[in-house]
Design goal:
Low-confidence stretches: none
Mean pLDDT: 84
Strand content: 5-15%
Structural class: alpha/beta
Oligomer: single chain
CATH architecture of one domain: 3-Layer(aba) Sandwich
Helix content: 25-40%
Number of strands: 3
Largest sheet: 3 strands, parallel
CATH superfamily of one domain: HAD superfamily/HAD-like
Radius of gyration: 14 Å
CATH class of one domain: Alpha Beta
Strand order of the largest sheet: 1-2-3
Length: 87
């Protein structure tokens, strides 16, 4: 459980609810959504949900071969482009 001081922290156990609510409110399908992830587990979850997955791993995880499953792999969010988001 996150610290009470982190009021807007989304944990893995709560994220599905927020994604589902956002998709319903905006009439989105998973195929039109993009997930920005920093972990292998997050990337796997977004791919399982059929979302486009953009990963920005920590420097020590950059060479993890499992990140090849992502649609896009960046070294930093400063590299993110519209093309990355739109495919």
């Amino acid at each position: 459980m996150p610290s009470p001081r982190l009021k807007n922290c989304l944990t893995a156990s709560r994220i599905r609810k927020y994604i589902s609510t956002a998709q319903q409110n905006w009439a989105l399908t998973p195929l039109t959504c993009v997930a920005l992830e920093d972990s292998v587990n997050g990337m796997i979850a977004s791919k399982a949900a059929r979302m486009r997955s953009i990963v920005v791993p920590a420097p020590e995880a950059q060479n993890d071969p499992r990140f090849v499953l992502a649609n896009v792999k960046l070294s930093s969010l400063t590299e993110l482009t519209a093309k990355d988001l739109l495919g």
